[in-house]
Sequence to fold (97 residues):
Amino acid sequence: MAYCKHCGARIDDGANVCPECGTIQNNNPQTTKDEGGFLWGLLGCCIPIVGLVLFLVWRDTKPKTSKAAGIGALVSVIVYVLFYVLAAVVGVGVAMY
Ligand SMILES: [Zn+2]
Fold:
């Protein structure tokens, strides 16, 4: 159980904002920057392996950033799979004629 550093009210461990006074909590002092963000998603999309690694490494310390990277990697993988499925279907279709 965590306590608000501003007013001392009890707050959930996972909560980022105090329900009593609205002060933003920084429960993990190691968290320097966790803004999520488009660039990490883009990186994960361009290099899915990097996105996956970042997702696993930052899962605990930078949830938002890791999520962005993970989603980017996931989207990239889905696009690749769709592309190959489509290519396979088109290839089979061409081969049948
Ligand atoms: Zn408070």
Notes: The longest strand covers residues 2-3.
